[in-house]
Write a structure and sequence with these properties.
Elements: E1 4-9, H1 25-38, H2 40-50, E2 53-63, E3 72-81, E4 87-95, E5 103-112, E6 118-119, H3 123-135
Antiparallel strand pairs: 1-3, 2-5, 3-4, 4-5, 5-6
Length: 136
């Protein structure tokens, strides 16, 4: 399966005193990439019309190399459908045009309704992920 690519710039606010990206900010970079992968309009529609939202169930990050102020990064995301209730995003942060991942992430998502109860993944999302997996 091909990766979804999301570009981001490292700003001053993303860094700590040393000028390196603060470790927790990679979670923000990955979150933005997931939003663009799934589609901001579709996420809004799911929340407003169906009362469904995605939440992080589990996150694991491995840090190999830090990004610095001014770096241009790409977040490469690949999606795996685990069950009718759970998705896994395999996400890596890279400097542009570099195949060596700086940070590797495995983010597991589930869907909840407005009462924060677990619900099955929306059928449109399941269909899209299944089609992506079959085309690879």
């Amino acid at each position: 399966m091909t990766h979804h690519i999301h570009h981001c710039q490292v700003y001053y606010e993303d860094t700590d005193l040393s000028g390196m990206v603060y470790h927790a900010n990679y979670l923000k970079f990955f979150e933005r990439a997931r939003e663009h992968f799934l589609g901001p309009d579709e996420l809004v529609r799911l929340l407003q019309e169906e009362g469904i939202g995605f939440v992080v169930y589990k996150a694991a990050l491995s840090y190999r190399e830090g990004a610095r102020l001014g770096d241009k990064l790409e977040i490469r995301s690949r999606l795996e459908l685990v069950s009718a209730f759970r998705l896994i995003f395999h996400q890596n942060a890279h400097r542009i045009d570099n195949d060596r991942p700086m940070v590797e992430g495995r983010i597991e998502l589930v869907c909840v309704n407005q009462e924060q109860k677990l619900v099955p993944l929306p059928s449109g999302v399941v269909d899209s992920v299944t089609a992506l997996q079959e085309s690879s």
